[in-house]
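INTERNAL AUDIT FORM
Audit reference: QA-55
Scope: verify that the stored structure record matches its stored sequence.
Auditor: D.O.
Record contents follow.
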Amino acid sequence: MTTVARLVLGGVLIAAGALKIGNPADSVVAVKAYQLLPESIAVAVGYALPILEIVVGVLLVVGLLTRVAAVIAGLLMFAFVFGIAWAWAKGLRIDCGCFGGGGQLGAGQEPTYLLDILRDFGLVLLGAWTARFPPGRFALDGALGLGGDTHHDGDEGDD
């Protein structure tokens, strides 16, 4: 189960980052649209986010520093849930920018806040699962002796 959780979470992060990295200006627009951060911080986050998503995603997929990557991924997803909920509560009409694009919605477009929140909260749960349990049999952590148990057998883990 942990292998599946880390592969799904890592794959989503890699896809999200890859779709944004080719056009970082769109990522900046998406971050600014939330109206949560001061301008200079929003710009820095917009440029850094795709890189962070790809790096953390790759770490999860290969199973290296799995628990650290899972905590970072879970916190990142929780921040996305918070941001989307914030936009919804403030009455903003924006595209989440989760997989590229982002910013104000065009005429006739409707936000998909509930679906975005549910998806990202599910990913928070995958991050929590992956952080809690050993990284799985196909993780580099196990091969390198970094993750303790190399499979999930229902035990308490290797804290």
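Auditor finding: record pair retrieved intact. Strands lie at 94-95, 103-104.
Action required: none
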